[in-house]
What we know:
This protein is mainly β and 129 residues long. It has 2 helices and 6 strands, in the order ββββαββα.
Amino acid sequence: MNKVILAGRLTKDPEVRYTQTGVAVASFTLAVNRRFSKEKVADFIPIVVWDKIAEVVGNNLVKGSQVLIEGRIQIRSYDAQDGSKRYVTEVIANDVEFMGSKPKLDGGAVPESAKSFGQEVPPDEEIPF
């Protein structure tokens, strides 16, 4: 059985491309922390997502997004320009679940009106419960 489950964060925004037949393909790198390491060490794992999930990933995930990936390991080879054979190991994702909150954009700036939203109830209003 070839099954992989990974939890981590995107190292950059996903790249979405389309094949000649119009099928969406998204690729990104996932930073996954090693659990039992004395130092903070992460592995950087290439992820490939196909079809509708690729479009969802491209429209909703950004650098720093926390995700759970379920898929399989694939090893493929190709001939490089110098004539040598190269091997690529990547995870082909079957399912992507969004975890955590969406990372803040534009340097994390939050409007002043949003900071105070819901913080205080005016004294003349009653709470309905």
